[in-house]
């Protein structure tokens, strides 16, 4: 016993006389070697209140083992906190009476103090991090055991209790998403990892489903005094909203591109239409008249454009289109009558209808019903429900004008009406030179005009 | 040749624009067939073996745009000349089949007619 490095002593006899080995001597500090052969109560007078009952128990035959006992002990004249793990074992004599006791003891003051200071450090760190706006966690050891999480981190993981658990136990749903491996890498290499807008599927509400999120974060190794990695500090921000905004912006920009492309196309298309009108109009001799006619045709087109722009080029009301094209030609309100339900035209139909009405009105003002003070025009449209599909019927009927003369040649106006208007409505157009006045009828039974929607709209 | 006039197929969904170029081509001595989209154009081509030239817009409704129509014509009727037109800046010339010509929109009708004469000569 005397040469063992394991600190030991025996207390013997009724005086509990102490005999200890070299291993025990450091615990006695300045009491050694005076304490050798002294009664226990005298040697340990400063802690006898704590240790005396345990010693009494040993003398009463009851052994004691303690992992950690704290004593306020006088060493070198100062009272200091000390910690021991020890066992007291009664020793019996030949008469089976307790003759003394045997103690093995280990001073663990340094370990306990280190652990306490570490706990205090963690507490201080925990308090520091708790209210930080970014999420933070401290993971300890190679298994990344949670030591600290702040409020933002707990919010991120749906307020699960993760302290003391490894990251694989605590957040099983992120298996296969690469985060465990990143942590392992940081722990083994000491290389800080910075993640930007990293996608994660995480359970963010208690017992809730996995939610997709995007995180900016850093995994930073933590070192002890000896330069060994002891854990990983995690800090970051949930940038899911920002990411969403970024995606929305990108989408908006792509929509913008599409719109710009569409606009470019429409402009080119309009220029092509203008070119077509020009090449049809500006032929022949009387250039001044033709220029005026060209201007009025462009004006009809422009009016229809305005109506379409009001609906961002989705649809135009047939009535608006007809009224817009008629406006420059109507001598007085009661000469032209419009009868028809509300109908929407697509942009193509709106443009060709405007040009057609312009041609009909120009012709009527020059040769037809609007060239006298008596003539009238009835413009009417309806869906004729007879037949399988409702047929859209649009009529321009002149009456009360001068005697009707069938023109000797077909001009731009009549070609526009019979070809272009008919094509854009996927229908047929007839022009009849009746004695009482010109009658122009557009019939369309295809899906081009949408009667169902329009009928529903009327109801 | 069954017909002395060269036959041209105009494929254009904008009826007014189609009418203008059809009128001009007829005045200039072409026999003109019209289609408002690629599907109509293919039907016409199947039934009219003497079409010498297809003049097509790019952006049209239906299952095919003018680029695809041009490719189909080049594939099925190799001798037919092709002229493609578009207002879109983004039409890539390498998308247009070999020996097809591209004319930006709006086009000059006189120049177009000269090109058609050269191609159908």
Automatic annotation (TrEMBL), chain A:
Which Gene3D superfamilies does the record match to this protein? Histidine kinase-like ATPase, C-terminal domain, PAS domain
| UniProt-listed Enzyme Commission number(s) | 2.7.13.3
Query: Domain PAC spans what residues?
Result: 196-251
Q: What top-level class of enzyme does the UniProt entry assign? A: transferase
Superkingdom field? Bacteria
Keywords, alphabetical: ATP-binding, Kinase, Nucleotide-binding, Phosphoprotein, Repeat, Transferase
Which reaction(s) are listed as its catalytic activity? Answer: ATP + protein L-histidine = ADP + protein N-phospho-L-histidine
Residues that span the membrane, as ranges? none
**Molecular function terms in GO for this entry?**
ATP binding; protein histidine kinase activity
Official protein name in the record: histidine kinase
UniProtKB/TrEMBL annotation, chain B:
For this protein, the record's InterPro entries field holds: Bact_response_regulator (IPR050595), CheY-like_superfamily (IPR011006), Sig_transdc_resp-reg_receiver (IPR001789)
**Organism (species):** Devosia aurantiaca
Recite the UniProt keywords alphabetically: Phosphoprotein
Domain of life of the native organism: Bacteria
Under the heading SMART domains, the entry gives:
REC (SM00448)
UniProt protein name:
Response regulator
Q: Which GO terms describe its biological process?
A: phosphorelay signal transduction system
At what positions is 4-aspartylphosphate found?
A: 57
């Amino acid at each position: 016993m005397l040469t063992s490095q394991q600190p030991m002593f025996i207390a013997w006899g009724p005086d509990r006389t102490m005999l200890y080995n070299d291993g025990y001597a450091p615990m006695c500090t300045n009491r050694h070697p005076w304490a050798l052969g002294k009664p226990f109560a005298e040697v340990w007078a400063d802690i006898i209140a704590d240790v005396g009952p345990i010693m009494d128990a040993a003398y009463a035959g009851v052994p004691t083992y303690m992992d950690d006992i704290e004593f306020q002990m006088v060493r070198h004249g100062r009272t200091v906190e000390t910690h021991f793990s020890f066992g007291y074992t009664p020793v019996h004599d030949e008469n089976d009476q307790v003759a003394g006791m045997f103690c093995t003891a280990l001073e663990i003051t340094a370990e306990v103090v280190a652990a306490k200071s570490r706990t205090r450090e963690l507490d201080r760190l925990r308090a520091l991090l708790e209210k930080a706006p970014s999420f933070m966690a401290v993971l300890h050891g190679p298994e990344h055991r949670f030591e600290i999480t702040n409020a933002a981190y707990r919010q991120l993981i749906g307020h699960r209790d993760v302290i003391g658990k490894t990251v694989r136990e605590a957040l099983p749903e992120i298996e296969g998403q690469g985060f465990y491996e990143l942590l392992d890498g940081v722990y083994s290499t000491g290389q800080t990892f910075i993640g930007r807008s990293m996608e994660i599927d995480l359970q963010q509400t208690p017992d809730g489903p996995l939610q997709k999120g995007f995180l900016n974060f850093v995994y930073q190794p933590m070192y002890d005094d000896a330069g060994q990695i002891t854990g990983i500090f995690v800090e970051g921000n949930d940038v899911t909203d920002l990411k969403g905004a970024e995606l929305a912006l990108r989408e908006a920009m792509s929509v913008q591109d599409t719109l710009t492309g569409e606009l470019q196309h429409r402009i080119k298309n309009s220029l092509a239409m203008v070119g077509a009108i020009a090449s049809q109009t500006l032929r022949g001799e009387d250039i001044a008249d033709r220029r005026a006619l060209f201007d009025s045709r462009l004006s009809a087109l422009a009016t229809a454009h305005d109506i379409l722009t009001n609906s961002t080029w989705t649809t135009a009301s047939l009535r608006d289109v007809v009224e817009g094209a008629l406006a420059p030609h109507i001598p007085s309100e009661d000469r032209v009558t419009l009868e028809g339900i509300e109908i929407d035209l697509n942009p193509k139909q709106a443009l060709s209808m405007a040009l057609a009405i312009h041609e009909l009105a120009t012709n009527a003002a020059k040769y037809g019903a609007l060239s006298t003070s008596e003539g009238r025009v009835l413009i009417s449209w309806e869906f004729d429900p007879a037949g399988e599909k409702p047929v859209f019927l649009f009529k321009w009927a002149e009456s009360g004008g001068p005697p009707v003369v069938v023109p000797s040649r077909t001009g731009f106006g009549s070609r526009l009406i019979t070809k272009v208007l008919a094509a854009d409505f996927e229908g047929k157009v007839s022009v009849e030179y009746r004695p009482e006045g010109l009658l122009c009828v557009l019939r369309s039974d295809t899906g081009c005009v949408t009667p169902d929607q329009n009928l529903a709209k009327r109801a | 040749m069954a017909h002395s006039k060269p036959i041209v197929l105009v494929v254009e969904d904008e009826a007014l624009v189609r009418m203008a170029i059809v009128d001009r081509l007829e005045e200039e001595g072409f026999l003109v067939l019209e289609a408002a989209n690629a599907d109509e154009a293919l039907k016409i081509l199947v039934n009219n073996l003497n079409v010498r030239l297809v003049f097509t817009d790019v952006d049209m409704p239906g299952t095919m745009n003018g680029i695809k129509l041009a490719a189909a014509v080049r594939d099925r009727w190799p001798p037919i000349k092709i002229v493609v037109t578009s207002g879109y800046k983004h039409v890539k010339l390498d998308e247009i089949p070999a020996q097809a010509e591209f004319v930006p929109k709006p086009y000059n009708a006189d120049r177009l007619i000269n090109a058609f004469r050269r191609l159908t000569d």
